[in-house]
């Protein structure tokens, strides 16, 4: 949009007066932010309404991305950037005596997710708007987001995230689009005169689902899409006791803070059905405004199941088609399969959702009947060809459990993993039986990120340098970063690149100083590992690397100075992960208080990792630690964000690391460790002995002993727990097996650091190759291969 500074300043002052009946300069920073956000919302609302009207008028096929998690991050900066008015607004703010960064920082960061899967969902919404695809989000408006993390005596403490304490400026309550979601009760099937069946419900618990819509503003293209989040409320007019009201409100009160386990609780099941049913119902209502024949649904609607949490969309859509529309089973099933598609995000067995049939039937009696019929027909259709054993292994119901991943595959026309390796492993292991039956459904869609947030907004210095070097086309199409490689031999450019990195390090160092009182020298390597705390991600291996350096320096060895920066939340119920957090904080205390380590080796664990903190850390990183055991990390996306900011990846050949290496070149990244097939062989042969490695490698021996011999303060029980996982339980994630090669790889990075020009060249190769990992391309591949939804603008 076009906007002059003068007009902006006048609008802003008027908005402040209108909202708070006061002058801008008398408002709190939060109020200043809110007035600005409401003003910007007003600027794009016409386009928002117009985008919806255009989709309807042109009867474009629309995609609905069902996800139990979204992590949009702060939206002010990104909305301003995408509207093309960021510079004007910042100039106006400055002229009004306000600091733009301070105003941005007053925005709450909605943590409506746990990690990768939730952030990916939001990146996709941003990307779809930016390439002009008709894509909508469908999820839950949790009243409390992911817990706020503090450290008390080195332990993780979880505080509630009351993110709605102040009104959330970007959302719009759409009371007129509310729908009713039914739980429990009994259901009877009656024949209609035409022979179709009607489901008659008795004694159900009805809940009102009220949507709150947030605009997803496209980049420089006037497209504004919608993320719709549902809130549970008592049905108006009913005489509800306080207790009933509380029970209804509980459905959307909290986000399950777990990124690994199946939260095997009835409330979680209620959450899943709540947003899935509300989403399906509102899609059908909208569809019916334009079409009479529900058989046309797949021509106009695609529904994507983001991991299994919304997998009962298979059953809910069947319910609507059978019961409400009176369709026969075969027609309804065909339409359902054509409409739905599914992404798997993890190979971790413990994350595979299953629901006890008894619980399911009680809460969702009609869906349970339909599930039984899906199971019966699946078995009947495939047993003869594939044998009872195979079909039994992958049927939707077995041993009294509903297996949601299998249901999702059976009820979808397309199934994908999130990196090439992951998609291959899905076919070879987790879903291999269903791959036998439905090979044509399986495909890969490597994840992507939004460089607008992670480079343009988070790294203005790098962005400016790129602009002056190759122009600004990369901002629209990040593949246009490739020509940067022409600067590989340009010492002046490489120096400027280092200078930009230094500015980011300065900013992060200032934050760390304020938060933790630590000094981080700017000439040190900033070595970053930021992601959920999980055994398979092997933060422990990183800690072992730190202790190796500690012992070496103690021993008089000289190493380039390194700051080890961690950000990670542990699921509150995940004991081992919390023990590792305590360990990292213990190692930090040991090292950061040792005068011999000053300026050489420090451990910096910044609490409350999330989207906003990532924006501060990522631009400052020199090394990106992506060190999961090969075959365990589905894709990773912090690996992409860090590479696009010029960090060198220290990586196992896991997830998308492999594709990053292919893109940036073998010399732009340092890899180590067992490969997926070596891991599989080692595990199958039962030849692995952690104890033998412990006995054979003196450094490793020493480090493992440090866990229990009192060298590290405050970890008595946690140290024992971790040591026992390594030695008594034989090291599930092969930390000891990869230790030696990890240290060797890390030393290669130390050596490269001594040659600043070569380091800068490797950083440049990463930046130049990062464009292909833009989510803009990922969603277009989904659009082409899976959803049949094409971009209308953009790249
Ligand atoms: C994550 C994967 O761990 C990560 O590798 C991938 O990049 C990301 O998804 C996006 O595809 N998985 C999850 O976040 C996940 O499985 N969460 C569900 C258990 C809640």
Automatic annotation (TrEMBL):
Reaction catalysis annotation: [(1->4)-alpha-D-glucosyl](n) + phosphate = [(1->4)-alpha-D-glucosyl](n-1) + alpha-D-glucose 1-phosphate
Enzyme class: transferase
Enzyme Commission code: 2.4.1.1
Cofactor(s) required for function per UniProt: pyridoxal 5'-phosphate
Species this protein is from: Lacticaseibacillus baoqingensis
UniProt GO molecular function: 1,4-alpha-oligoglucan phosphorylase activity
Family: Belongs to the glycogen phosphorylase family.
Keyword annotations: Carbohydrate metabolism, Glycosyltransferase, Pyridoxal phosphate, Transferase
Gene3D superfamilies to which the protein is assigned, alphabetical: Glycogen Phosphorylase B (3.40.50.2000)
InterPro entries recorded: Glycg_phsphrylas, Glyco_trans_35
Protein's name according to its UniProt entry: Alpha-1,4 glucan phosphorylase
Role according to the record: Allosteric enzyme that catalyzes the rate-limiting step in glycogen catabolism, the phosphorolytic cleavage of glycogen to produce glucose-1-phosphate, and plays a central role in maintaining cellular and organismal glucose homeostasis.
């Amino acid at each position: 949009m076009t906007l002059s500074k003068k007009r902006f300043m006048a609008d802003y002052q008027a908005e402040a007066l209108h909202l708070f009946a006061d002058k801008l300069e008398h408002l709190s920073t939060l109020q200043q932010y809110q007035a600005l956000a409401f003003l910007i919302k007003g600027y794009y609302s016409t386009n928002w309404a117009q985008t919806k009207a255009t989709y309807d008028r042109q009867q474009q096929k629309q995609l609905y991305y069902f996800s139990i998690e979204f992590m949009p991050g702060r939206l002010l900066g990104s909305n301003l950037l995408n509207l093309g008015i960021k510079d004007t607004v910042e100039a106006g703010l400055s002229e009004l005596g306000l600091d733009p960064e301070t105003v941005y920082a007053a925005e709450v960061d909605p943590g409506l997710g746990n990690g990768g899967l939730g952030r990916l969902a939001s990146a996709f919404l941003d990307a779809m708007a930016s390439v002009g695809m008709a894509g909508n989000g469908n999820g839950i408006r949790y009243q409390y987001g992911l817990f706020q993390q503090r450290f008390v005596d080195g332990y993780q403490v979880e505080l509630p995230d009351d993110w709605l304490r102040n009104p959330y400026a970007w959302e719009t309550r759409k009371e007129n689009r509310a729908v009713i979601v039914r739980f429990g009760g009994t259901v009877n099937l009656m024949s209609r005169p035409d022979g179709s069946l009607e489901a008659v419900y008795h004694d159900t618990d009805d809940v009102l689902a009220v949507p709150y819509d947030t605009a997803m503003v496209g980049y420089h293209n006037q497209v504004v899409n919608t993320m719709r989040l549902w809130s549970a409320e008592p049905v108006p007019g009913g005489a509800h006791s306080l207790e009933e009201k509380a029970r209804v409100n509980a459905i959307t009160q909290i986000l399950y803070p777990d990124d690994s386990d199946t939260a095997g609780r009835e409330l979680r099941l209620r959450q899943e059905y709540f947003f899935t049913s509300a989403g399906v119902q509102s899609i059908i209502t909208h569809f019916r405004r334009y079409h009479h024949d529900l058989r046309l649904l797949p021509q106009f609607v695609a529904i994507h199941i983001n991991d299994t949490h919304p997998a009962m969309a298979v059953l809910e859509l069947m319910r609507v088609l059978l019961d409400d529309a009176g369709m026969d089973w075969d027609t309804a099933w065909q339409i359902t399969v054509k409409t739905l598609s599914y992404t798997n995000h993890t190979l971790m067995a413990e994350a595979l959702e299953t629901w006890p049939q008894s619980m399911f039937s009680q809460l969702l009696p009609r869906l349970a009947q339909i599930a039984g019929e899906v199971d019966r027909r699946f078995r009947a259709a495939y047993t003869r060809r594939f044998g009872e054993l195979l079909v039994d292994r992958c049927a939707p119901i077995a041993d009294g459990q509903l297996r949601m991943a299998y249901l999702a595959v059976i009820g979808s026309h397309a199934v994908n993993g999130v990196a090439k390796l992951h998609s291959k492993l899905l076919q070879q292991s987790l879903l291999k039986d269903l791959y036998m039956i439905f090979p044509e459904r399986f495909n890969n869609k490597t994840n992507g990120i939004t460089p607008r947030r992670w480079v343009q907004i988070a790294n203005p210095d790098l962005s400016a340098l790129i602009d002056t070097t190759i122009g600004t086309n990369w901002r629209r199409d990040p593949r246009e970063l490739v020509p940067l490689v022409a600067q590989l031999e340009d010492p002046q450019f490489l120096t400027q690149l280092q200078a930009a990195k230094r500015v980011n390090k300065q900013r992060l160092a200032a934050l760390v100083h304020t938060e933790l009182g630590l000094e981080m020298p700017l000439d040190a390597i900033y070595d970053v590992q930021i992601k959920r705390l999980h055994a398979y991600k092997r933060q422990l291996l990183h800690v072992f690397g730190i202790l190796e350096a500690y012992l070496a320096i103690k021993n008089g060895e000289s190493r380039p100075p390194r700051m080890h920066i961690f950000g990670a939340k542990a699921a509150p119920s995940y004991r081992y992960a919390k023990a590792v957090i305590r360990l990292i904080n213990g190692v930090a205390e040991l090292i950061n208080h040792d005068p011999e380590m000053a300026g050489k080796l420090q451990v910096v664990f910044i609490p409350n990792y999330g989207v906003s903190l990532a924006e501060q850390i990522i631009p400052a990183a020199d090394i990106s630690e992506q060190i999961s055991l090969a075959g365990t990390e589905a894709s990773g996306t912090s690996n992409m964000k860090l590479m696009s900011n010029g960090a060198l990846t220290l990586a196992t050949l896991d997830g998308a690391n492999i594709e990053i290496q292919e893109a940036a070149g073998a010399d732009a990244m340092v890899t180590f460790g067992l490969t997926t097939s070596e891991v599989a062989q080692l595990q199958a042969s039962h030849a692995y002995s952690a104890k033998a490695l412990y006995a054979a490698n003196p450094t490793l021996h020493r480090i493992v002993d440090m866990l229990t011999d009192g060298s590290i303060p405050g970890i008595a029980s946690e140290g024992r727990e971790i040591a026992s996982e390594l030695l008594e339980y034989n090291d599930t994630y092969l930390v000891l097996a990869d230790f030696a090669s990890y240290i060797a790889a890390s030393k290669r990075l130390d050596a490269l650091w001594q040659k600043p020009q070569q380091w800068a060249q490797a950083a440049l190769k990463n930046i130049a190759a990062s464009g292909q990992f833009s989510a803009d391309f990922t969603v277009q591949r989904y659009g082409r291969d899976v959803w049949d939804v094409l971009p209308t603008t953009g790249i």
